[in-house]
Amino acid sequence: xxxxxxxxxxxxxxxxxxxxxxxxxxxxxxxxxxxxxxxxxxxxxxxxxxxxxxxxxxxxxxxxxxxxxxxxxxxx
Length: 76
Known about the structure:
Blueprint: H1 2-14, H2 19-48, H3 59-69
Region (Disordered): 52-76
Protein name: DNA-binding protein S1FA1
GO molecular function: DNA binding
């Protein structure tokens, strides 16, 4: 008799999914969808958007770089 009552309790606990498991599955699914969506958007943007233009380098920076290399800047 004691064995049957213990088995019934265990079976009742195992019926259905644990609420914690459901929450974990939902959160994991949302995270995976988020990352897959981000990756898809990134790949789409790489194909369709034109490449970014580089910022123009200031004359002051050019002068400094040339002085570092040992080449005299023009106009000096």
